Predict the structure.
Amino acid sequence: MAKTNYSYEKRGRELEKQKKQEEKRQKKLNKKNDAGQETEVESPSSTDNPLVKE
């Protein structure tokens, strides 16, 4: 019977962890950038809201 190559399996697990960490980092950056853009873009005006009576 063939001997199990544990270092190969370990390397695969390490690559999966790195991939997940990179995805999390990208999500955080995108979330941070989106939050910054929303505050700049959103500026509610009273003329846009039909419920506001002048």
About this structure: The longest helix spans residues 6-41. The CA atoms of residues 7 and 53 lie 71 Å apart. The radius of gyration is 25 Å.
